[in-house]
Design brief:
Number of helices: 4
Shape: globular
CATH superfamily: MTH938-like
Strand order of the largest sheet: 5-4-8-6-7
CATH topology: Hypothetical Protein Mth938, Chain: A
Order of helices and strands: EEHEEEHEHEHE
CATH class: Alpha Beta
Strand content: 15-25%
Distance between the termini: 17 Å
Number of domains: 1
């Protein structure tokens, strides 16, 4: 499914499929990657097939869990280190509920967390990012 929000800035999710997510790369990151040269097309995208963490400012391309069962406290700590106000956990094709102890790094910092299936997490992330919220989506691609 393609997602299109023209008002969003920073990293956004262009589309998602069963085992992949396509990310819109912000123009500033494109220029930086090209050594200061503006690209000819400002709509660069990257398709990822590994689990990821995305915020408007950050894209972590290889978040370690490859399935819901593999999520560990250190994986959640990596999300908490980004200091979002809200974390959307995209946990695959269907909703799962992690053990509450896994969320301790978020709870200690007062960071909200929502458990969602991956499609819902992708859609919600874009809307919140477009509003300027400090949101992170940690998405398991299995």
């Amino acid at each position: 499914m393609k997602i299109d929000l023209e008002t969003a800035t920073g990293y956004t999710i262009h589309s998602y499929g069963k085992r992949e997510i396509t990310i819109n790369i912000p123009l500033a990151q494109q220029i930086e990657a090209a050594g200061g040269t503006p690209p000819s097309d400002d709509t660069a995208r990257e398709t990822l097939t590994n689990s990821l963490i995305i915020t408007p400012e950050t894209l972590i391309r290889n978040w370690p869990p490859t399935g819901f069962e593999e999520i560990a406290v250190e994986h959640i700590e990596a999300v908490a280190d980004l200091k979002p106000e809200l974390v959307l956990l995209g946990l695959g094709d269907r909703l799962h509920f992690p053990k509450p102890a896994l969320m301790a790094p978020l709870i200690r910092q007062g960071i909200g967390v929502e458990y969602m299936d991956t499609p819902a997490a992708c859609r919600t992330y874009n809307f919140l990012a477009a509003e300027g919220r400090r949101v992170a989506a940690a998405i398991v691609i299995a």
